[in-house]
Design brief:
Strands 13, 14, 15, 16, 17, 18 and 29 form a 7-stranded mixed beta sheet that branches. Helix 14 links the parallel strand 22 and strand 23. Helices cover about 30% and strands about 25% of the residues. It is built from 15 helices and 29 strands. By secondary structure, it is α/β, with parallel strands linked by helices. Helix 9 packs parallel to helix 10 and helix 13 packs parallel to helix 14. Pfam families: cNMP_binding, Pyr_redox_2. This is Thioredoxin reductase (NADPH). Keywords: Flavoprotein, Oxidoreductase. GO terms for molecular function: oxidoreductase activity.
Length: about 575
Amino acid sequence: MLSTQEAEGQQQAVVADAPFSSLSTRTHQMYPTLTAAEIDRLRRFGEVGHWETGELLFETGRPGPGMFVLLEGRVKIYQRDGIGRELLIGEHGAGRFLAEVGQLSGRPALVNAMALSAVDALLIPPEGLRALIVAEAELGERIMRALILRRVGLIEKGAGGPILIGNSTDPRLVMLQGFLSRNGHPHSVIDERDEDALHLIEQFAARKEDMPLAICPDGSVLHHPSMPELATCLGLLPDLDDSHVYDVAIVGAGPAGLATAVYAASEGLSVIVLDSRAPGGQAGASSRIENYLGFPTGISGQALAGRAFVQAQKFGAHVAIPVHVKALRCEQSPYQLELKCGGHITARAIVIASGAVYRRPTLEGLDRFEGRGVYYWASPVEAKLCKRQDVVLVGGGNSAGQAIVYLATHAANVHVLIRRSGFEATMSRYLIDRIRSLPNVFVHPNSEIGRLAADDSGLASVSLKRPLPDGTDHFDTRHLFLFTGADPNTDWLRTCGVKLDEKGFVITGTGRDGASVCDLATTVDGVYAIGDARAGSTKRVAAAVGEGAAVVAQIHQMLAASAGEAVALGA
């Protein structure tokens, strides 16, 4: 069940099988009616327009023009998916406002809005919407809460998103589901054996090698699409202007990168955030973080990332996901980030917040099972695949501990393999105590995987290097979760001369002559490193967020010094 705290705070972390009734008691917050006085306060942020009966105010898949405040007339909100099915979502009249959280940045609309009668409405464009949320604190808070809750409702209904058709165990389908879920985008899934799916497969003349299919809201069909291809079809990728010079370009949308975006954008700097997958980084895959300050009952990593993602957009930061940075070019200033998809981003300051990539153990044939029984995180998508089945998990850190606790609520049994004799040296005490209390979790110390075995369906068993004390030498399982650490995601820096340590982490502060240990600058002026990619960093969400805030002050100093030099040269 989606908690009240999570529903308010993010548009992404929605439990896959949560009933829509979790929001049924919050209709007054999702669809508040504004008073005449409140509408008058909003008029300075937009312009009044007129729409005749039958006209569309906005349409699924097309860039949303912003938020509509209805002054006269009635509007029908309805979903229309890629195969022509329609679902009425609601009708609204004078005093209501029409938008969801995507309109903070002018993302494509997820539903249609049709005038049922002649309509007069105040249209507030995205930049005006962001301005009013900041300027009108109390009213802005109510509007923001409604926008977020509406996105949560659309996600739970699958409204406005693509239809995915395929085998539930197909790693490509699992990848697409995970991408959409972590990016807070509605979608629905039809198993390829379902009667409706068989009809659609025949209709589109799809072959086995074409699966999975993605039917976009505009009716276009993608055959086994990549994440960027699906994002392009859904209009998630923003138009990137090669000629625009940002104050700050941030590579990585984990806690460190998003914190930088929030603080920099809120202080008036022009900001762009780039990430190759989804907001949250590795922390976004944590099922529940219970030691983050201010959340005594805990919060999922995806919920925390969702809050930060919305906050960054609120202050005007541009976010481009999924965009893969190929290289950093430092030959001239401002610097350029070369993109794998072509083009580049130009900025006066670069923040390296690219975190780490999951470490792959040396196991023969491991790549054959990735997505087909082997996983590097535990989200609702993976939990649903292993429901009431035995799973094996390898790892002894906090990420592993959070995954163990989460999977124990779905799997029949969780067998945990750790090379050490216990968790004490690598895991927080609260997680150790929680794991000990779970009756279906079995921890096997001093144990390692020897090999993986397959059958026609994928992973079939996990064999051990040495038998356990009770003689067990393998586990029959179709689900193996690997939390064996991560390596710094810094290969893209080697073209720029940013100094790395022997493990590939970025050297800051003490690596520069006369620098303070708090200095987050790298060996290249104007380039900074924060979070897990930085040498000597504390691998904790709170530390990453703190560095994101601290680096903004250092960037301000650098930009001010650069401006002073430019003035002096001009004189």
